[in-house]
Amino acid sequence: MAKNMIVAQSGGPSPVINNTLRGIVETARELSEIGTVYGGWHGIEGVLKEELINLTDQCPEEIALLRTTPAAGSIGTCRYKLKDHQNEDFDRIMEIFKAHDIGYFVYIGGNDSMDTANKVANVARERGLDVVGIGGPKTIDNDVGDSEFKLIDHTPGYGSTARYWSNYVQMSNEENNGSCPADPVLVMQAMGRKIGYIPAAARLADPHREMPLQIYLAERKVNIEEVRENINKTLKEHGRAMVVVSEGLEIDGLEIPEEFVVRDSFGHAMLSSSKITVGQMLVNALNEKPLAVKGKARCNVSGTHQRNDIVHASNVDLAESYYVGQKAALLAANGEHGYMASILRADRENYTVEYGKAPLSEVANSERHFPQEWITPCGTDVTDDFIKYARPLIGDNWVSVPVIDGRIRLARMKPIFADQKLDKYVPQADR
Fold first, then answer.
1. 244-291: per-residue pLDDT in tens?
2. CA atoms of 395 and 313, how far apart (whole Å)
3. For residues 36 and 2, is the Cβ–Cβ distance under 8 A?
4. Interval 166-209: pLDDT, tens
5. With 0-12 CB in 10 A as exposed, 13-18 as middle and 19+ as buried, what is 115?
6. Residue 141 a catalytic site member
7. Within a 13 Å sphere around the CA of 384, how many CA atoms are in the beta-carbon half?
8. What is the pLDDT of residues 106-128, one digit of tens each?
9. DSSP summary character for residue 305
10. Burial classification of residue 271, based on how many CB atoms lie within 10 Å of its CB (0-12 exposed, 13-18 middle, 19 or more buried)
């Protein structure tokens, strides 16, 4: 007899996260082993609150529109972390599973989400529930998996954000080239708290290194005087300079006071929410002294549109995110408990991929780093090996986005929620 599924999302959204959800729902509809697919409304918090939106009974057209509906507005996401000591939360989730005949739990997210998927499914099995736990990878940072790219080559979401930065730097170069007599230095801050895959993607805008572009990754701590010297050298050579910095870049002499940093429930610094950013701090420092040419530095801090801009999404990323969702549903139906659906590069010369599985326990306990050998010795650029790795991920053509009456036609789920069978519950960490 078919068991029902709960799928939920966690952490920051991505341009293609809904297409992974679509892959799960559309595939599950064709599998006799899976009954109703419920979405946890705003992630694991919705599961705890018994807020389960019925995705199986949604209009197929709306599910199809998830392909070009970015971010996580369809079923929501959260940053609620299930910690080992929160026994009441785990008890509650088991009650939800029993009350709604859940046999499959799929969590879409990053490393913390893979850890949650692993913990929840293992607790269920320890308590005698036949629940299959599956992970769906998602992160624009590309930090899920291992540094050897054996567990997963790259994560859905990264290719689209990389394409955004490739396009953004090209457009910014046009403006900087035109306005450089007044503001010769443009500092652009990219997401990337600890890992440099997003700012590194700026190089995809200029693979032949024709722009006066410097890239500073979070992996390489720098000194303000060193940065100033690098920029002034570029100004003397080109009359202008473009500088891309990781939001988590550490600059000696420009430390952000801890009281200015906002943190989420995972303890991660929410740098875009903090009172001051590294990009603005750098611009302030540059403007305190005369530049090598006349004019001033200015700063652009890209916000969450890096992860919700469907117009700049990668067609490659969209296709792969769907097949990852499909793979997750197939793993679940086959009873392959404890795995994350993964993307593996089958041919590195002529880019092709295959969809496999990685043990959740390994993914949850692994941490990917940006390869040091992909950072140039000078520390202000990335190598051609990075370009070779990342170039296929951004694709070539523009995404076809449906437009009606001048507005993007986005998916809209009907509020079809499962009947609440249990008492109201306040998640343990919210009390």
1. 999 999 999 887 677 666 666 556 665 555 567 899 999 999 999 999
2. 9
3. no
4. 999 999 999 999 999 999 999 999 998 889 999 999 999 999 99
5. buried
6. yes
7. 2
8. 999 988 888 888 889 899 999 99
9. G
10. buried
The CA–CA distances, whole Å, from 183 to 229, 255, 282 equal: 18, 25, 15
Burial class of 60 by CB neighbour count within 10 A (0 to 12, 13 to 18, 19+): exposed
* Paired tokens of 242: 């473009």
Q: Which two structure tokens, joined as six digits, stand for 19? A: 């297409």
Distance CA 170, CA 207 (A): 11
Q: Which residue has the tokens 């010795």?
A: 377
Q: Which of 89, 112, 141, 381 is catalytic?
A: 141
Write down how long the chain is.
431
Q: Write the DSSP assignment of 103-140 as a string of letters.
A: EEEEEEESHHHHHHHHHHHHHHHHTT---EEEEEE--T
Q: Per the structure block, which two tokens stand in for 53?
A: 């939106």
160: its two tokens: 């689209």
DSSP string, 309-342: -STT--HHHHHHHHHHHHHHHHHHHTT-TTEEEE
Structure tokens at 303: 């916000």
Strands (E), 247-399: 251-252, 297-301, 339-347, 352-359
Angle at 196 between CA 144 and CA 190, to 5 degrees: 110
Q: pTM of the full predicted structure?
A: 0.94
The DSSP 8-state label assigned to residue 200 in this structure reads H
Name 187's Cβ contacts closer than 8 Å, sequence gap at least 6: 243, 245, 279, 282, 283, 286, 297, 298, 299, 300
Q: Under a CB-based contact definition with an 8 Å cutoff, are residues 114 and 363 in contact?
A: yes
Strands 185-190 and 52-54: unpaired
